[in-house]
Design goal:
6-stranded mixed beta sheet; alpha/beta; single chain; 48% helix; 335 residues; 11% strand
Length: 335
């Protein structure tokens, strides 16, 4: 198969599992030949090859002594990082599902059951989950996408509309806490730590653990927690199974944040008629990774356990760990 290696499917997006990558890559390369996109990819491929060659030459000059010295330095860095590890935070990453495409499908019912994407023949911004099953994804030229999926409907983007919908999402989140930061129109990081602490009851106050369910509870406690009387949905995932007797217990921190995030996602859907997925963990990086693991319209929770976190990270693809662009992943793997 000829052509730049970078002209291959990046199937890291949710909804692109189990595709026939060989067939899709063949179509991508054939459709790209002679285009400016193909020429640009060839140029980048040569630059990458030159960079890899130089780095491999530099690697030959690395001695065993240099490696040993670096290992000692890295051990010191690891020790400092381990000492500063903070498992006390409740960080949430909320990511709207196929946001631009979902907005267009909401506003035009005719788009809901067909493969569609937002963008142009030059480049796509996103695609719906039906189109992703054909290998169509963001950052792909539309003319290639149509070769992969001849029935693809491409609609132009409307960023004013997307900003308006994004504003509604942020307004919902602001009702829960003001400690959030939007990474883009469709994703936001939220520090729920203080909210979770304020909502978590003492064991003797928890209805699941107390025979006198209302004794000892203040009126403020009752008001704070009364709205979250929900059961976990089938699509919500917790990395390790919690004991049954604390699964939805308001004296268990992880249950509290899980229920709050589930309610937040429900409020977002009510306000926008769109679904959101979420990741929950002790830091922003892990939460972003988790938010992609149960899409669409789900959430994935990583418990506040050092051993669980280390096991989780050890099983991640290097692309997830380093959050690499497609070409940089090729660079790392070449070394």
């Amino acid at each position: 198969m000829t052509g730049p290696n970078s002209l291959t499917l990046n199937d890291g997006k949710a909804g692109m599992e189990g595709l026939d990558k060989d067939r899709i890559n063949r179509i991508i390369r054939e459709a790209s030949k002679g285009s400016k996109f193909f020429q640009h990819a060839e140029k980048k491929e040569k630059e990458l090859a030159d960079k890899v060659e130089k780095m491999l030459e530099e690697r030959k000059r690395i001695t065993d002594q240099m490696i040993s010295r670096s290992e000692v330095e890295l051990d010191s860095v690891i020790s400092r990082l381990e000492a500063s590890r903070d498992m006390s935070r409740d960080i949430v990453h909320v990511d709207m599902d196929a946001f631009y495409a979902a907005v267009e499908m909401r506003d035009d019912p005719a788009l809901r059951d067909v493969p569609m994407a937002v963008g142009s023949s030059s480049m796509l911004s996103t695609s719906n989950y039906i189109a992703r099953k054909h290998g169509v994804r963001a950052a792909m030229p539309g003319f290639i996408a149509r070769k992969l999926c001849p029935g693809l409907v491409i609609v132009p983007g409307n960023h004013d509309k997307y900003r308006e919908v994004s504003g509604k999402v942020m307004a919902v989140i602001a009702k829960y806490t003001d400690k959030f930061s939007a990474a883009s129109l469709d994703e936001v990081y939220i520090d729920m730590t203080d909210v979770v602490r304020s909502r978590t009851l003492r064991a003797q106050e928890c209805p699941e653990h107390s025979t006198a369910t209302d004794q000892g509870r203040s009126s403020e406690d009752k008001e704070t927690n009364k709205e979250v009387e929900v059961q976990p949905k089938a699509e919500d995932t917790i990395h390790t199974q919690k004991p049954k007797d604390i699964r939805d217990c308001w004296c268990n921190r992880e249950s509290v944040v899980s229920n709050l995030v589930r309610n937040m996602r429900g409020d977002i859907q009510q306000a926008t008629q769109l679904t959101a997925s979420a990741g929950i963990s002790c830091n922003s990086f892990l939460s972003k990774v988790c938010s992609d693991l149960n899409k669409p319209n789900g959430q994935y929770q990583l418990p506040h356990s050092r051993d669980v976190v280390l096991d989780f990270v050890a099983q991640l693809d290097i692309k997830k760990v380093l959050i690499l662009p497609h070409h940089n992943h090729s660079l790392v793997m070449s070394l």
